[in-house]
Amino acid sequence: MSDHIVVQQDGAVATVVFNRPKTRNAISLAMWSEIARVTEGLAKDDGVRAIVYRGAGTEAFASGADISEFEQNRKDLDTATAYTTQTEAAYRAVRECPKPTVAMVFGFCMGGAMAIAMACDLRFAAQGSKFGIPAARLSIIYGLDPVHQLVDLVGPAYAKDILYSARALEADEALRIGFIQRLLPAAELEAYTYDYLGKVAANAPLSIRGTKAQVQALFEGVTEAHRARLKQLGIETFTSEDYREGTRAFLEKRPPRFRGR
Length: 261
Prior knowledge:
Order of helices and strands: EEHEEHHEEHEEHHEHEHHHH
Low-confidence stretches: none
Distance between the termini: 30 Å
CATH superfamily of the largest domain: 2-enoyl-CoA Hydratase, Chain A, domain 1
Largest sheet: 6 strands, mixed
Structural class: alpha/beta
Number of helices: 11
Strand order of the largest sheet: 1-2-3-5-7-10
CATH topology of the largest domain: 2-enoyl-CoA Hydratase, Chain A, domain 1
Number of strands: 10
């Protein structure tokens, strides 16, 4: 694993850290590949029930893709296509992860980092954070899936505003238009995020998996394949040990102990 992507685990909650604080955690090509790899690994780890993505320190979640690499890694159509394949794999791994994901944002969250944040289920931010997509200042068209997610979060008019202007949004505006779900003082953000996910992790993993699959199906446009998959998830949940445990715990007036099976 690269020193620039660090994975930490505390109980059932894992944290993926973008670890390049001297560059405001700018994401290199190698890091894009590593984000996909570690996310796919955490998705398969039964000991992990929720994932946080964050930047090292408190100056930035990430300042976006490392533009200093573009002259080499996006110098022509072939290299640009290969680069886009890596970034899209990272976004897809986060977006399709069956476990709850939160982007915990201190400071700057810009460009490609916005796509990572949007691929997460929720975005919790510290006061003073800034958000932006400067693609229009680089003559880049932002990816379709991240734009779809942006429109889903803030609506088409605000999405166009953000992309047309390439401006930075202050955290208060990001909260008001629905881009972030929580805005807290910087000193409180970390404790709040892990306390929230600790409570989520104590809930039934199969229920959460099903809810996430339902929302993703609605986002993608429900097909017969979605319906079949969601029906199967419902059957698996209803026939699970956790369903029996949840019922017993309710009747016995005690907290349930879910095992994800």
